[in-house]
Amino acid sequence: MNDNDEIKFTLPNSSNEVAEVSAAEIEVIEDGYRRIFSRESPEYFIDKGGAGAVYHLPGGFCIKIFFDRHDSPYSEHMDLGNTPIKEASLQERMSHSSFSGNVRVPKYLGTFEKNGVIQKNALVMETLDAHNLQLLLNNKNLPDNFNTDTFLASLEKFIQHMHAEDRIVHNDLFPRNIMVDKATGDPRVIDFGRSVDTTYLVENSIKLEIEERDWKLFDKICEEIYSLQK
Ligand SMILES: Nc1ncnc2c1ncn2[C@@H]1O[C@H](COP(=O)(O)OP(=O)(O)OP(=O)(O)O)[C@@H](O)[C@H]1O
Ligand SMILES: [Mg+2]
Questions:
Q1: Do the domains 4-126 and 130-227 sit in the same CATH topology, yes or no?
Q2: What is the pLDDT of residues 35-50, one digit of tens each?
Q3: Which atom from ligand 1 is nearest to the alpha carbon of 48?
Q4: pLDDT tens-digit profile of 53-91?
Q5: Within 10 Å of residue 65's Cβ, how many Cβ atoms?
Q6: Pocket of ligand 1, candidates 190, 192, 195, 217: which has the most ligand atoms within 8 Å of its Cβ, to mutate?
Q7: What atom of ligand 1 comes closest to residue 66's alpha carbon?
Q8: Which residues are within 5 Å of ligand 2 (an ion), measured at CB?
Q9: CB hemisphere CA count around 163 (13 angstroms)
Q10: Which phi and psi angles does 33 have, rounded to 5°?
Q11: Measured from the CA of 128, which atom of ligand 1 is nearest?
Q12: How many Å apart are CA 17 and CA 22, to the nearest integer?
């Protein structure tokens, strides 16, 4: 990244710019993108997975920077999942879900242009103030406000709604992609990097075996959480 590159944060078409992010916040986001790309910024780092790393920005935003795997000469041998653009579009759809329970996804906010070219390597979303469920399971330590029955019942309803109404199968519902809100103990679902838009399948009455994968992984989450309580 050069100092004179023009970085522009771009909001999704569906959003109302004024309501979603203020001009001052856009400045913070664009500045954060520049800093993260121009040097190592350990002070911003939150966590990473196989597809990307997530960096905190002031103001409650974070940036997921995708590793450059789709352009790798070995990409055909890797199970890469969605392109960042596809991941962003599914997360955006889930950000507008009509689900009314106490589960949600981090709000998708937008992406970037550099010198007028859309950047396919980053997305901006709300930072969750939440524990990663995998970490909690590793430490065998669920927070005091965690209620197993409520948590799992809420998550189950969310998955049902996501399949039936949002027409998305998450397809990667491992504990590392579930978070636990620090204030409420409620579930948060992240990482739509392997998610599938099932609109076509539903509209053409094609049997949705793929939904079973979410339920299998949900059952494993239930087992793992209950096993901690023995
Ligand atoms: N909005 C967020 N707020 C806070 N932390 C987040 C947020 N999104 C992601 N994280 C943290 O960053 C980690 C990596 O993010 P994410 O799961 O999206 O990356 P990934 O590389 O696609 O993961 P995977 O290895 O599951 O494919 C998560 O496990 C979580 O701990
Ligand atoms: Mg992940």
A1: no
A2: 888 875 667 889 999 9
A3: 14
A4: 999 988 899 999 998 766 677 777 777 889 899 999 999
A5: 19
A6: 190
A7: 21
A8: 49, 177, 191
A9: 15
A10: -60, -45
A11: 3
A12: 8
Ligand 1 centroid, distance to 130 Cα (angstroms) = 11
Q: What is the mean pLDDT of residues 112-128?
A: 92
**Which CATH topology does 130-227 take?**
Transferase(Phosphotransferase); domain 1 (1.10.510)
Domain boundaries, the chain: 4-126, 130-227
Alpha carbons within 13 angstroms on the beta-carbon side of residue 224 total: 19
Torsion (CA) 73, 174, 130, 48 in degrees, nearest 10 = -20
Nearest to 181 by CA among 121, 138, 127: 127
Domain 4-126 has CATH 1.20.120: no
- Tens of pLDDT, residue by residue over 122-140, are 999 999 999 999 999 999 9
The amino acid occupying position 62 is C
Residue 199 confidence (pLDDT) = 94
CA 205 / ligand 2 centre spacing (Å): 30
The ligand with the least distance to the CA atom of 47 is 1
pTM flag (> 0.85):
yes
Placement of tokens 């049997």 in the chain: 207
Q: Are 63 and 37 in contact (CB under 8 A)?
A: no
The CB of 191 under 6 Å from ligand 1? The reply is yes
Ligand 1 and 50: CB distance under 6 A: yes
- pLDDT per residue over 182-205, tens digit each? 999 999 999 999 999 999 988 887
Residue of the CA atom closest to atom 11 of ligand 1: 47
